[in-house]
Amino acid sequence: MNASLHNKNIILGVCGGIAAYKSADLVRRLQDAGAQVRVIMTSAAMEFITPLTFQALSGYPVHTDLLDTEAEAAMGHIELARWADLVLIAPATANSLARLASGRADDLLCAVCLASKAKIAVAPAMNHVMWSADTTQNNLHSLSESGVEIFGPDAGLQACGEVGEGRLLDTEQLVHACSNLFSRGLLQGLKIMITAGPTFEPIDPVRYIGNRSSGRMGFAIAEAAIEQGAIVSLIAGPVHLTTPQHCQRTDVETALQMHQAVMSQIAEQDVFIATAAVADYRPHQVQLQKIKKTTDKLNISLSPNPDILKEVAALSKPPFTLGFAAETENVKDHALLKLKNKKLNMIAANRVAHMVTTHEESQTKQDSGFNSEYNALQVLWKDGELILEHARKTQLARQLLTILANRYYEKTST
How far apart are CA 201 and CA 99, in angstroms? Predict the structure, then answer.
């Protein structure tokens, strides 16, 4: 498997040549390598193979029209251009190469290429005489000069019965060539589970015990892990955050639901990152009807929730575990105790009290911790520690995962 295609969005452009039948297999091979694939077909391509074939293989509608009224604001080419990490045109005919080289934008495929900042690659397929023609070679030179990657072609027996250069590369070669366009991330191919947000423990149908966690840190870590090539499962408590692309998200509400979601999938994970602020206790008995207010005191009996992180770390074959400790005092001492008692590989500690104390400081600093886009972390493990200074959670997430990657590979290589 070409792990560097994990989480990559690839538009496959299919042009009108007999080699178009090979593009059907290419869709499946790209998906097997971890890519998300959408297909654009030219009008000529539809004379060789039907859009229904590609829809069945990709699982998504095939795009054929430049002005698609069903696309957002009829700007389908812009929508697709922004989505793509790579536009691969295979087969790329002599006509399609000429159109691209001249900057045409009068069909959907050319318009997407012109509007996209993604990588663009072409896999030529044509008669060997057409391939060797000066015009074709000049067009290829122009495309290469503008940053377009050229994959192939191969040489051999052609559909016309002649032998020469101009055959489409086989699908495995094309997938490998696409993979080489992307650098491998620090966490490439690793399966990482992340818990994020609070849990709500119901008292009655309208009330619950909860906390102030926004889930922002966990979601930032999920995005950073995806950037580094990880396969991410995100278990989210009740939050109002957009799911990162290429992420499998499971929504839960209570600690017991989170526990069940984690334990049902944890055996296949390489890394477990517990950023969720899981309630330590839940009401022993949930009232079926709303509790009416009276002048009497209300006593609620609480039962302990399972310690998800501790259970994961105690498995016979545990994943690499990173816990979080949100504290209001003695941050390092409490974090080290948690690291030791739960037998974790790493812990990231932060103070959840406000960092802003004066009007002057408020001009340059932001709040930290819960319900903030900013944080500061003290990362601890058995024989070391690092301080991650006050910054946006998105920045901290990238720094934290760099530390985690180093510690993970150090552990797994011994």
Answer: 61
